[in-house]
């Protein structure tokens, strides 16, 4: 869900990360298009030659909800 991605990227900042990014897919575009009156969006993609200090992927469907 897009809301899960929003939560994850906000949590990165709360954990003193510089940024948290999720790839744009059809679900993301549908979410944005349903909440905007702009007809077209420019999707910015990562540089294919980029290198990262750290990269990790999580499968949110396997994570259990937690309260803090």
Characterize the structure shown.
The protein has 68 residues and is an all-alpha fold. The chain has helices spanning 2-14, 26-34. The chain is built from two helices and no strands. The chain starts with a helix and ends in a 34-residue tail after the last helix. 0% of the residues are buried. The model has no long low-confidence stretch (mean pLDDT 84).
**What percent of the residues sit in helical stretches (DSSP H or I)?**
25-40%
Task: Report the mean per-residue pLDDT as an integer.
Answer: 84
Distance between the termini: 21 Å
> Biggest β-sheet: count, sense, barrel?
none
Please name the defining characteristics of this protein.
68 residues; 2 helices
How would you concisely characterize the structure shown here?
By secondary structure, the protein is mainly alpha-helical. It is 32% helix and 0% strand.
Lay out the secondary structure.
Elements: H1 2-14, H2 26-34
């Amino acid at each position: 869900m897009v809301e899960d991605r929003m939560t994850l990227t906000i949590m990165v900042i709360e954990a003193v990360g510089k940024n948290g990014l999720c790839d744009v897919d059809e679900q993301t575009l549908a979410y944005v298009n349903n909440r905007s009156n702009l007809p077209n969006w420019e999707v910015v993609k990562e540089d294919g030659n980029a290198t990262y200090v750290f990269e990790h992927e999580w499968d949110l469907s396997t994570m259990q909800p937690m309260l803090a």
